[in-house]
């Protein structure tokens, strides 16, 4: 495959697979929940009266700092490390800004720096093994969802159905479970801590190149930056493999707009695609 491919193929050994692991950090947040799921059945045990889903979500927004505090932010820079247990550790940096801009850089052992970005219109990736590429429509929409800067306070925009299931333990913590149905009719389940109101984690079923797989994520720790609480330690399990994401520093409102500019290699691919799409003129 040459470096001028215009779509992102499934099943790549380093590029898409490892960035799916990296971006599982966003999947642990309401703003970036992937649309794919399979909600577990409600508990058969009798429970006290459950709060409505909208009230659980409103409490979550208050718990992380409130809508006003979230909307006051104009950018984020997050530095940390991704570890795939039993395989490798890799430093990573996440840049994000409203409304839908994102850049992820991860340094993979024996591979080098892999970059994935979305500037609001173009989704792209560059890695040392396969070169530059721009995403096809499906991956592009996924990138747009992941990059929604204020999505964690806009549940009603992302989900057409939100309903309380029950109260149960998730990762050893008592939680309210909510069934979420996306605009595309896909399901996932979120778990909000009864005591703190924070999002403890989520479960969903994702389609992969080898069939559907269950993914679970757990937010182990939150810290406050700029008046808003963020998960700084998240563990994700999928297909028996555990990935840990730890962030040691979060900077608020320090990212410059030019960070999200398309690299020259990607601009060249965009122009090439536009040239091919332009209809031929008759003489």
Write the layout of secondary structure elements.
Layout lengths: L14 H8 L1 H4 L25 H12 L2 H6 L3 E9 L3 E10 L3 E8 L3 E7 L4 E5 L3 E4 L2 H10 L8 H4 E12 L2 E10 L4 E7 L5 E10 L2 E15 L2 E11 L2 E12 L11 H14 L6
Antiparallel strand pairs: 1-2, 1-13, 2-3, 3-4, 4-5, 5-6, 7-8, 8-9, 9-10, 10-11, 11-12, 12-13
Mean pLDDT: 82
Q: Can you say what the CATH homologous superfamily is? A: Lipoprotein localisation LolA/LolB/LppX
Q: Determine the CATH topology.
A: outer membrane lipoprotein receptor (LolB), chain A
Q: Tell the overall outline.
A: globular
3D structure, described in words:
The protein is α+β, with helices and mostly antiparallel strands. The chain has a single domain, classed as Clam (outer membrane lipoprotein receptor (LolB), chain A). The protein has seven helices and 13 strands. Residues 1-40 have low confidence and may be disordered. It has a 13-stranded antiparallel sheet with strand order 6-5-4-3-2-1-13-12-11-10-9-8-7, with helices on both faces.
């Amino acid at each position: 495959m040459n470096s001028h491919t215009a779509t992102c193929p499934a099943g790549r050994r380093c590029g898409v697979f490892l960035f799916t692991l990296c971006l599982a950090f966003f999947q642990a947040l309401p703003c970036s929940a992937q649309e794919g799921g399979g909600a577990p059945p409600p508990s058969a045990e009798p429970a006290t009266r459950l709060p409505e889903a909208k009230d659980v979500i409103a409490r979550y927004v208050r718990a992380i700092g409130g809508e006003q505090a979230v909307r006051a932010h104009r950018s984020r820079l997050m530095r940390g490390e991704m570890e795939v247990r039993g395989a490798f550790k890799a430093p990573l940096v996440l840049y994000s800004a409203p409304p839908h801009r994102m850049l992820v850089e991860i340094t993979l052992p024996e591979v080098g720096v892999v970059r994935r970005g979305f500037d609001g219109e173009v989704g792209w990736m560059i890695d040392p093994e396969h070169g530059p590429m721009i995403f096809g429509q499906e991956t592009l929409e996924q990138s747009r969802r992941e990059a929604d800067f204020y999505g964690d306070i806009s549940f009603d925009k992302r989900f057409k159905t939100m309903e309380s299931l029950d109260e149960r333990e998730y990762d050893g913590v008592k939680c309210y479970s909510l069934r979420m149905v996306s605009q595309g009719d896909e399901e996932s389940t979120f778990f909000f801590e009864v005591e703190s109101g924070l999002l403890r984690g989520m479960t969903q079923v994702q389609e992969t190149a080898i069939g559907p797989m269950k993914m679970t994520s757990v937010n182990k720790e939150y810290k406050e930056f700029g008046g808003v609480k963020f998960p700084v330690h998240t563990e994700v399990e999928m297909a028996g493999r555990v990935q840990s994401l730890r962030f040691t520093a979060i900077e608020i409102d320090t990212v410059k707009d030019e960070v999200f500019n398309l690299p020259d290699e990607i601009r060249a691919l965009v122009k090439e695609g536009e040239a091919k799409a332009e209809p031929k003129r008759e003489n």
